[in-house]
User: What shape does this take?
Amino acid sequence: MPFIGYAGIFFGETNQVSALLSHSCSWHRFLRCILTIFPFLEWMCMYRLKDWLLGDLLAGISVGLVQVPQVDVH
Assistant: This one.
């Protein structure tokens, strides 16, 4: 099916437009696109919040306390 563009909507070709959109937009394709843009969402589902959050916060604070003065000196 050739691409008819948005002009087809105004000329009564809505069946072709809806068929084109239904084939090109699927849930699997949308999810793959979102995971490409936001890759952290893939591993965020497996993140054990209660087990790892405190350690991650302490690591982030300690790196921040060391890194900020080093950048300020140079």
Q: What stands out?
A: Residues 49-73 form the longest helix (25 residues). Residues 1-37 form one domain. The mean pLDDT is 78. The chain has two domains: 1-37, 45-74.
